[in-house]
C-alpha cells in the first residue's frame, strides 16, 4: 500500500498530537460545487452516480482539488443497505429519498434479508477501492453507513419524515419487531463497513441522523444499543493501523457521555453543543468532530473566520479535535465561503497544537 | 372574579404542594378530537376559528369535557402577531402556515410595526375573556405567544422551514437587523401577553418551537435574550395571585440552567431530556413541565401507562412537576389513548405528593 502522506485526521481521531486541527466537511462532495453539478448532469440520477465507481471517484476527488482538506469520504448514500434489502430506493426531484416498499409489519420484517455486501453492494466496495487507489496516499479515505435506527426510519416511513409517526408507533407498539429489524440492520451494517475497511476505508463514520428524535431511554434501547453492536463487530486494525470509528448522532448533545462509552474513537457533534463543554464531559475517552452550524457558511468570510476562531478557542489546546460542520454542507453555499472556512481552520489552529 | 376551584396547576408552577401532579396537553384542543373537526367544519378556516371568540371558546372547552385536565389553554395560533404586522398569514391545506410578505431586508424590518394588542389583536383578548367567563373557575386559563425568534423564523422564511436558510443567513450576516426585528417582536409579545393577562389569562407560556435549531451561543443572543426581556416586562401579579410564566424551547435540553436563570417560573421540556436529570440541574429555581413523547400515544393504553409511571418516577417525590407531552398532541392520536394518558397521571401521581 502507498504510504499515507497526510495522517493528521487519523492521528487526531486517536487523540495523538498533530501540527494543526484536521478538517473535512460532511457532504463535501456535493451540490454546492459547480463541478459536482456538471458530473451529475453527465451521470444521470444520484444513484447512477453512486453505482458507477469512476463517477463516485471523480466527485469524491473534487473538493480535494479545491481545498486543503485532510480526509476524503466515499461518495455514496446512507440508504444503499435498505435498497439492497429490496425496498426499491428512488429519488423524486425536490422530494428526497423514497422507497417503493415500506416495512410496517412483523411479516415485512421477517422478509428482510441480511445484506451481504460482497454480492449485494459490490458497487460500493468497488468505489472504495477505486477512490483509495486514486487518492494515492494523499489523505485518508472515510467509509460510512447509516445507523440501524436511522435506516429504519426511512424503511418504515417510506422516506423522510417530519413526525416519525409510523416508525415510533412500531417502536412503542411492537418493540420486539422493531428490535428484530434493527438486529438485521446492525448485522448488515457490520458486514458493509468491514467490507469497506477491507476495500481501503481507513476510518468509518456511522451517521445516526435521526437518533435525536428519540427520548433518552428510547435512544439507548433503539439506537445506541445497535451502534454499540456495530462498534463491537468492526475490524479495528487494518494495514497495520487502527481504523477509527466515529459515531454521529444529530441532536445527541445530552447523551455524549453514554455514546463515549461504546468504545468508539470519536463523536461527531452538532452545533447545539458547545465543544469545550463536550470535551470536559467526555474527557480523554474520545476525540470530538464538529461542530460549526452549516448556516454560518451563508455569512461573510470574516464572520466565518470569527466562528472558526470561537470553536477552536472553546475546544482549547491539545489533540483530539477534528474540525467539521455540525451537519452536511448546504447546497446553496458559495464555494468561496467553504474555502474561507477551511482556510481559517488551517491558519488559526496551529497555535492550539504547540 | 369567580373563585378558582382547581388550582393545582398554578400551585405546581410555583412549586407549592399539591395532591397530585397536574396535567394538560399542548394542542389539547385540536384535530385528534372529532368534536373539534366538527367545529372546524362549521367555522371555516383555522384562522376563522381563532378570530371568532365563541368558536375559540367552544373548542377550548372540548377537551375539558372529555378529560380531567387541570388547565385550559387559549385556542389561537402563534402567528397572530406577524399577521397583525401586516404580513398576510394564510394556511394552505397540508402545507402549514404561510405569509404573503416575507421579511428579508433592513427596509422590511423598518417597516414592521410594533403590535398594539388593543387595536390589532382584540379578537384574541375577546376570546380570552369569553373563555375565562365560560370556565367559571373550573380550571385556570393559560395564555400564550410564540417567542420572538420563533416568530422571526416564519416571517423571514415565509412559512415553515427545514433548514432555516434565510433566517440564519440574516442572523449571521446582518445581526443588527435581526436584533431590530427581535426587539420589535419582544415589545409586541410583552404587550400581547399583558393584554391576555388583563383579559383573564392566569398563566402564560412562551413557545420557542425553533430555538433548538440554534447554536448554544446564538440561542442566548437571538432567542433567550428576548424571552428574558419578555419575562422582565410581564405583569407578574394579577387578581391577587402570581401569574406564572413558562418558557418552552423545543430541543433546549442542554441549556436548561441558563433558561432557569431568566426569572421564569417553569420550563417546558421535550422528551429528549430525562426529567429527573433536568430537576437535579435546575434545582429549586423553576418547576418543570413535560415531557412524554407525543408518539407514545400511538401505543397501547398499557404501554402509555408504563411511560407515565417512568416519567413520574424519574421526577420523584415533591412539588414542581406539571405533566404534559413534550410537544403538541398529534392529529392521528386516538382520543381514548389521550384519556388513558391523562388518567394514568391522575391515578399514579398521588403517591409522589404524600
Précis, in short:
Two copies of one chain form a homodimer. With 354 residues, chain A is α/β, with parallel strands linked by helices. Chain A has helices spanning 8-13, 34-43, 46-51, 53-66, 80-87, 106-110, 117-120, 122-135, 148-157, 165-173, 175-199, 216-233, 256-260, 275-282, 301-315, 335-348, and strands spanning 72-73, 89-92, 96-99, 141-146, 203-208, 237-238, 241-242, 245-249, 266-268, 287-292, 321-325.
How many structural domains in the coordinates of chain A?
1
Largest sheet of chain A: 7 strands, parallel
- Read across the widest sheet of chain A, the strand sequence of neighbours is 1-4-5-8-9-10-11
Largest interface: A-B, 32 and 32 residues
Proportion in β-strands of chain A: 5-15%
- What share of residues of chain A is helical? 40-55%
List the helices and strands and how they pair.
The structure is a homodimer of 354-residue chains.
Chain A: H1 8-13, H2 34-43, H3 46-51, H4 53-66, E1 72-73, H5 80-87, E2 89-92, E3 96-99, H6 106-110, H7 117-120, H8 122-135, E4 141-146, H9 148-157, H10 165-173, H11 175-199, E5 203-208, H12 216-233, E6 237-238, E7 241-242, E8 245-249, H13 256-260, E9 266-268, H14 275-282, E10 287-292, H15 301-315, E11 321-325, H16 335-348
Parallel strand pairs in A: 1-4, 4-5, 5-8, 8-9, 9-10, 10-11
Antiparallel strand pairs in A: 2-3, 6-7
Amino acid at each position: 500500500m502507498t504510504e499515507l502522506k497526510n495522517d493528521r485526521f487519523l492521528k487526531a481521531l486517536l487523540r495523538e498530537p498533530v501540527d494543526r486541527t484536521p478538517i473535512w466537511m460532511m457532504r463535501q462532495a456535493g451540490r454546492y460545487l459547480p463541478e459536482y453539478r456538471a458530473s451529475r448532469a453527465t451521470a444521470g440520477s444520484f444513484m447512477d452516480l453512486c453505482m458507477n465507481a469512476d463517477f463516485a471517484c471523480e466527485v469524491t476527488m473534487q473538493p480535494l482539488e479545491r481545498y486543503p482538506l485532510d480526509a476524503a469520504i466515499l461518495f455514496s448514500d446512507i440508504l444503499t443497505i435498505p435498497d439492497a434489502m429490496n425496498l426499491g430506493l428512488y429519488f423524486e426531484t425536490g422530494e428526497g429519498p423514497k422507497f417503493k416498499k415500506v416495512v410496517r409489519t412483523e411479516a415485512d420484517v421477517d422478509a428482510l434479508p441480511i445484506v451481504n455486501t460482497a454480492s449485494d453492494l459490490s458497487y460500493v466496495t468497488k468505489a472504495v477501492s477505486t477512490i483509495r487507489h486514486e487518492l494515492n496516499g494523499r489523505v485518508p479515505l472515510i467509509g460510512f453507513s447509516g445507523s440501524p435506527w436511522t435506516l429504519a426510519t426511512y424503511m418504515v416511513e417510506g422516506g423522510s419524515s417530519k413526525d416519525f409517526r409510523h416508525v415510533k408507533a412500531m417502536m412503542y407498539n411492537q418493540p420486539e419487531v422493531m428490535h428484530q429489524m434493527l438486529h438485521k440492520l446492525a448485522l448488515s451494517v457490520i458486514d458493509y463497513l468491514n467490507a469497506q475497511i477491507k476495500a481501503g476505508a481507513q476510518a468509518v463514520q456511522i451517521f445516526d441522523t435521526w437518533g435525536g428524535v428519540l427520548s433518552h431511554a428510547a435512544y439507548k434501547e433503539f439506537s445506541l444499543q445497535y451502534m454499540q453492536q456495530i462498534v463491537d463487530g468492526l475490524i479495528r486494525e487494518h494495514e497495520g493501523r487502527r481504523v477509527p470509528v466515529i459515531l454521529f448522532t444529530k441532536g445527541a448533545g445530552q447523551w455524549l457521555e453514554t455514546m463515549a462509552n461504546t468504545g468508539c474513537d470519536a463523536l461527531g457533534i452538532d452545533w447545539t453543543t458547545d465543544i469545550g463543554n463536550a470535551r470536559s464531559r467526555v474527557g480523554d475517552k474520545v476525540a470530538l468532530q464538529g461542530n460549526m452550524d452549516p448556516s454560518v457558511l451563508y455569512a461573510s468570510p470574516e464572520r466565518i473566520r470569527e466562528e472558526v476562531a470561537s470553536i477552536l478557542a472553546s475546544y482549547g489546546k491539545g489533540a483530539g479535535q477534528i474540525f467539521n460542520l455540525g451537519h452536511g454542507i448546504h447546497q446553496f453555499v458559495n464555494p468561496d465561503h467553504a474555502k474561507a472556512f477551511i482556510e481559517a481552520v488551517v491558519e488559526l489552529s496551529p497555535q492550539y497544537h504547540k
